[in-house]
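Forwarding the complex inputs:
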Amino acid sequence: MPEGFSFSAVASGIKKEALDLGLIYAEKPVQGAGVFTSNLVKAAPVLLAQGLLAKRNAFRAILVNSGCANACTGEEGLNDAQEISSYLAQKLNCLPEEILPASTGVIGERLPKEKIIEAIPPLIEGLSPDKYQDFAKAIMTTDAFPKIASRQIEISGEKINILGIAKGAGMIAPNMATMLAFLLTDTSLAQDKIYKILKDTVDKTFNRITVDGDTSTNDTVYLLASGYKKKIEDRNIDSFKKALYEVCYELASFIVKDGEGATKLVKIKIINAENENRAVKIAQTVANSLLVKTAFFGEDPNWGRFLAAMGRAGINFDPNKVDIYINEIKIVENGLGTGKESENRAHLEMKKPNFVVTIDLKQGRAEAQYLTCDLSYDYVKINAEYRT
Amino acid sequence: MPEGFSFSAVASGIKKEALDLGLIYAEKPVQGAGVFTSNLVKAAPVLLAQGLLAKRNAFRAILVNSGCANACTGEEGLNDAQEISSYLAQKLNCLPEEILPASTGVIGERLPKEKIIEAIPPLIEGLSPDKYQDFAKAIMTTDAFPKIASRQIEISGEKINILGIAKGAGMIAPNMATMLAFLLTDTSLAQDKIYKILKDTVDKTFNRITVDGDTSTNDTVYLLASGYKKKIEDRNIDSFKKALYEVCYELASFIVKDGEGATKLVKIKIINAENENRAVKIAQTVANSLLVKTAFFGEDPNWGRFLAAMGRAGINFDPNKVDIYINEIKIVENGLGTGKESENRAHLEMKKPNFVVTIDLKQGRAEAQYLTCDLSYDYVKINAEYRT
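Prediction (whole assembly, two chains):
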């Protein structure tokens, strides 16, 4: 576990299903960076955090609540988030600006400020380096399981730790919401690189998953680096990036696996594309197609749907050159089906809980992948329930 | 009914559910125009028709088959379509180039050419001006009902008829597929205007509906003008355009109403936008959001989902100015919820089979609308069934 951090979690009664306040605390100021939702409609904690990160790069704590997104709450919502940070800062003996907020839950309702403030003293009392699992549970909403991933790498004889904790099960869940991830490490990074490293990693992991194609108002990924271990030098940066990617990729897979109602985790892999952006765009369109996702649920290698989704991605390619595989089974060669026998074999592959759809464009050398899940009855059930 | 056309339909045994060959025949060459799928992957009949329409503007017949899309079938698929047209032309005593093809059904399978050719003689024998309903039934796939709309307008004392027949229930249905529409009129139009009139009308009607956001490889709209009545002069063109729009809008609503598994027909209306394109983009994103569509199914005025979908449309607007209505009930004012009481009233409006979501951006004077439906268990059921 990365040194320099403690965790805590309490139930303040905002929601019944789980604990609902989580705190990550750093003993001394630590480096921080954040990547946020691209949605034009941004929740109050996102707006507050973006303001903080624009001005400073040292932080002491992350406070997360589940049950209420504090989104579409206007000026009052911003004030609520600020008041809670001020109270926490006073109790932690730090500046309000050193606290990064995150919220997930219903949009359009005010935070239960008093309840949260009441819960802060026991939250602080409970701080401990071992309580990261409690924290992971506290931030869950419709999540079926807590999401934790970690890596240890050795650089110049020193062991460096990365811990990641995430929540998310639908881009915006019914009552609850959002994808949040908290990445902690005990090294430090060049200040001018930390944001870029985080952003690049998020773009290749959390930004390449889909459950329902919707983007939350609250999506947030924070990276805190405590600096207990030696700073990462430029020549070792790739080892660090690789480990951070692995942690993020694992958390991203957990989110899709836990997709609302999902029964399959499917990797859409585009190979031999002209460039990476085009590969991403095609992968994304296939990954979000309702007809593709229902075909996954039906375990049907209905490749016409894959090609039809690719064709509306807005990217030029030659349909008559495309090969498509389900795991190792080739079901399309040069744009034509390879026959019933291979479809039957592909159908068997699709009975597995995880499989890969590989699409070969034969255009160039770039590739990209996207993680998605199937669309089941339960997705509709979870999301169609009336909120009250 | 427009003069100069006859219809016929027969079952050739391609599919069991309905008749599966439909023919529209014109006694003498008639003006024709077509608008096709924007999907890069285009079915053989679409490629064939695009080639014909690029070279000529007079036609004698439209031949439609349901059960097989003849898409992703390569050179052989094109040859199949051409051979069928040649045989039909010989029997009708016209040129193969005077026949416009359309197909809907499974992607990736060859047309049962012999069966279709065998069915052509009885198809021709059956031709009659009264059989348009049989034709409408023959082209159905997962459609629950045949889709027919018509208008009669009077121009300079002469009665002009427009008849529209369509099929479609999902953009690409499970086994079956596609949106097809056939528009017939007994007037004629300036040759340099006919395509533009059709294209503009399609853009505002069939291109502003969604069931699942997928675009078929086979989507086709044909307009044939027999010229039995006086030609439409420029000063009367708006009356004709209005009537054509109404026919297309009515057919488009039927398609959404018949959306696979749909229980609600919802109009998303964006008002006071900066320009029409931006209004369309926002309406489209809201209309396609799974979370919005499941909220419709759940009759839940979950306006946070509407705002969140708008926010990812890639269009700039001020979330703090937005008002949202369900029918006449205002549920959002200046980006904030108007309270539980109005939500409860909106919930009652959403129990109706049709309702309107109006979104006021307060940016400018442009507006646009999009028709969508809810996402139900049955959509998943219909689309997740294994094809065999």
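Chain A has two domains: 5-257, 265-384.
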